[in-house]
Amino acid sequence: MKKIMAANWKMYKTGPEAAATVGELAKLLGGRAPDGREIVVFAPATALERTAEAIKAVAGAEAGAENMYPAEEGAFTGEISPLMIKACGARWVLTGHSERRHILGESDAFVGQKTAFALAQGLRVMLCVGETLEEREAGGLQEVLERQLREGLKEIPADTAPENLAVAYEPVWAIGTGKTAGPEDILEAHSLCRSLLGALLGEKAAQTAILYGGSVKPANAGSILALDNVDGVLVGGASLKAESFLQIINAH
Ligand code: 13P
Fold first, then answer.
1. Is residue 106 annotated as part of the catalytic site, yes or no?
2. What is the model's pTM?
3. Domain 3-249, what fold?
4. How far does the centroid of ligand 1 lie from the alpha carbon of residue 74, in Å?
5. DSSP, res 32
6. Which run of H or E residues covers position 99?
7. What is the mean pLDDT of each run of 10 residues along the chain (252 residues)?
8. Of 2, 7, 117, 249, whose Cβ has the fewest other Cβ atoms within 10 Å?
């Protein structure tokens, strides 16, 4: 399985800024993702088309949307559909990001509807899961991951190809805080995710990528990527500059 090196640009970058960063990255990479790695850039909706266009200059890289609504079209002011995402030239969408769960109030059930609908519409989906500090301190890690994965994957099409689905484990307390989960924490959570995926997806679980996210930086990416069951990283702040994202993409 290739490792997935993913950037989540959150609410940063206009279209021209996104295109410029991708252009810089393409030059630094010499027009291709390193062997054994694929690159995904999740960009804001307003920058998605420019990002998808610019990323064509990198073989092995794709653009993704940060959000979508689970309907083909309709009276859903402010939302975008999988069809619109595909028409921008993007292939991926994020679901269940902790900022959407905790700031925008998305429920496990809604995340599940979105994940299933996006897959049925032919997008590749990265489902984010992870516990808050309170949940962790109360010993709730397994229960949270179990619930978020079960509800998140509840209605996915039976014929979902494993390469179209990825899970990102992002402990909420490590996002944007500079606190990275330690190797033991990551090993424990990723192994839990792998076995929970086994119960939910059967054989496909072994080929479903599980990424780590939360304060990934050039200095820690190599050691995180070397851990068992870590099939990539999902990077916020440190992906905003091409130079820093490049170092993470190349980290060993
Ligand atoms: P940071 O890398 O900024 O901690 O963000 C992680 C994240 O939320 C990626 O989706």
1. no
2. 0.97
3. TIM Barrel (3.20.20)
4. 31
5. B
6. helix 98-102
7. 98 98 98 98 98 98 98 98 98 98 97 98 98 94 98 96 97 88 95 98 96 97 98 98 98 96
8. 2
